[in-house]
Amino acid sequence: MQRRFLLLAASALPAWATAGERTPDPAADWAAQTLALAWRRPDGRDEVGLLRLDWDAQRMQVLGTWGLPGRAHGLSSDGRGGFYAVAARAGDWLLHVAADGRARWARQDGPWTFNGHVLPHAAGLFATETDPRDDSAHLALRDPDTLVLRARWALDGRDAHQLVVQPDGRLLIALGGLPRSADGRKRAGPIASALLRLEPETGREQRRWTLPDAHISLRHLAWSLDGRRLGVALQAEHADAAQRADAPLLAVLEDDHLQLPVAGGPGLGYAGDLCAAPGGGFVLSAQKAGLGLLWHPDAPTRWTRIAELTEPCALQNQATGAGQAILIVAGRGVARWQAGGARMLAWPQAMVPDNHALLLA
Asked: How many CA atoms lie within 13 A of 111 on its CB side?
């Protein structure tokens, strides 16, 4: 299979990148895994399915699929062996696949559309939404089993995207801030991106953070493994191509302070996804540049390249006998990087993966 593929072994990385890693246990580190993923078939149909990644046998197989009404975006665990898949902007459907494979669907009860992410929470299942009549952002709360709507609150802004929960139960939501038409496409207008902290009981805003550059959109969120900091993947929207190409890719929220640790970046201004990395850092997929990048708090002003791949996007981290492994879903297959080495599996059939993936226990 022809591909551009390079994964750097741990020995090629700075000492801080692998500090504290345990001696690899090959039998444990390369066991088979189950990955939930959405993709588009060559005939244009959208599916979500479960893939078995057999690293010892060096093969991948499809375990099961569910047809979709349109493109999916975020995938979230239900905490019981199943998962949620939600429509990409501006779709109107939500799917829950239980651990036994039973599927339950929900459709919007009005003009609202989903924005591609849901969050299981003690209070229920939260989802970001848009009212296309005025392009306003909303937060919805649904029953995690029946998917029935319980509440919906308007947010001060537009283009709400991913959301995560703090240890105290409060919500953090990235407002992308991009003006959009009713079909979800970007349109001309000022960008008003922000990170919000909300009360889960009422949707009331408690705190708002913004970046000094109004042409940068905050998109995806991930906690560091130590829980000390929140990583925010960024998307540059500058009209000037040179400014866009050199824009920062990552913002970090720590001690209630939002900062840009690396001024520029080799990512052409677009971060597809991010996940936690060893040592309190983050791995980020610079999809347009074909790079997997590691940011570490011990070297906070620079990136370390860990992968060069065709169209890398979805990222997942997993604890292994050697520490943390990182899965990188790319255009031609799934790569896995960890201290004990690196491998890649090709897709079992022709498919175009979507932006996010989910490792199931």
From this structure: 11
From 172, 155, 154, select the one nearest 163 (Cα to Cα). Answer: 172
| 3-state helix vs strand vs coil in the chain, percent to 5 | 5, 50, 45
Give SS3 for 325.
strand
In tens, the pLDDT along 40-78 reads: 999 999 999 999 999 999 999 999 999 999 999 999 999
CA 324 to chain centre: 17
Q: Would you give the DSSP letter of residue 184?
A: S
| 127 vs 150: CA distance, rounded Å | 11
CB 125 within 8 A of CB 84: yes
SS3 209: strand
With beta carbons less than 8 A apart as the criterion, state whether 75 and 85 touch. yes
pLDDT tens per residue, range 164-186: 999 999 999 999 999 999 989 99
Asked whether 343 and 55 are in contact (CB, 8 A), the reply is yes
Inter-CA distances, 150 with 84, 112, 158, 223, Å: 17, 14, 21, 27
| Residue 201 burial (10 A CB sphere; 0-12, 13-18, 19+) | exposed
pTM (2 d.p.): 0.93
Question: Radius of gyration over alpha carbons of the chain, in Å?
Answer: 19
